[in-house]
Amino acid sequence: MAVITLKSKYSKRQLKFDSHGNKKQEAVFKLWNDQTTTHILYGGAKGGGKSYLGCSLLVASALLYPGTSYVVLRKERAAMIKGLLPSFHEVFRDMGVGPKEWKWNNTYAYFEFTNGSRIHFEDGKWEPSDPDYQRFGGLQLTRAWAEEAGELNEEAVSAMFAQCDRKLNDKYGLPAKILLTCNPANNFLKYSYYKPWSDGTLPQHMAFVQALPEDNKKLSSRYVPNLLRTYNARQLQMFIHGSWDYDEDPNALCETAAIADVFTNENVPDKGEKYISTDLAGRGRDKWVVCTWRGNVCRIVLSQRHSGAKEMEDKLREIATQLDIPRSHIVSDSDGLGYYLGDYLRGIYEFHGAQRARDNKVYASLKAECAYKLAGLIQARRLRIIAAETDIEQIKAELSMLRSKDTHASDTRRDIISKAVVSPPTSSTLYLCVWSSRYEPRPAGYRLVVSLPLASTN
Q: Same structural domain for residues 78 and 179?
């Protein structure tokens, strides 16, 4: 049993953290206090002590460094408050923090301590009215914690981390840090943390600490046996054994093997009409992707971050000119920053994913229809993607997010879950060409009509 003594020269008090022999939690405390690590992912299974650890780190930091500011981020703030307040109270008790040393502001959802430090609770849900998380801009933070990070998109985490290092970090010599806690997830956490960690290529400023139920000595002896009786095989692999690769979701539109094959489907002919599809940075993303197409062969010719509007316009015009692709064969996602392109590149097509589907009786929206048709191409091995090696794992992660809503009523139209609706940039760009490259000739000025004679996913 290890008890860690927590202290700083800026506070007279000393705090105690009892890990009860949990070596993984002790490892995270060391990472939280080093000078090099900025991003720490902890978890990978149920019962690893994630919540208690996160609460302990923030409470200790707030008390030892007066006037500092922290945040807990989760997709739904109400669920976070309901779930975490008992853990915070447990930490207060265990660390000897009396009720007169803190107060809870229920209106604005934060703890305030008598030394001036605060711990805020923020909602990380993507909102159409705030696609780039500008609502975080007013926060001046010392450090952050993304709880249930698997529910968040990468941009929410990045936007919150950008607000760190803004509250007395220099005074106390505290580098900006963000703790992420999660269960296994087939999203950016897997491809930015778990995979590089397992391959031995995780950058020095990042850390992953795998925590399993057996690491948590405070768990009830009945906890794991109860889960063994309750969970199915997939859930047991993920939540008990901490497997990040056991993710054949019954609602997934594409099998893992089919997604892997899109990079080697050399049977797909590289001929036919040429097109460009592009998804500009926006809608909660800061990445710009441009794809060129011949038939069903897609080349990702540009994938970069933080581009200015003029730069994107000029570069797109240059690519189209070099490849001799007419404006009528260029499509841009107009639900993001792409809405402005139509004003400067006359004659391109604008994609609005929320519009009515062509087959409105079957699909809930145009984007859902294109997602199903894209999945059909992938499953039928009729799509090939040519991309840089450094982008392939991220593209696999994006395509694995193509999931149907779990609807059973026969009269319910097909739709995709929210993570797929707020699509990552590469997937969104693939949707566009599924939409744009299959239309019948029409007279000038005639509005584009979707025509999708692609493989069925039935």
A: yes
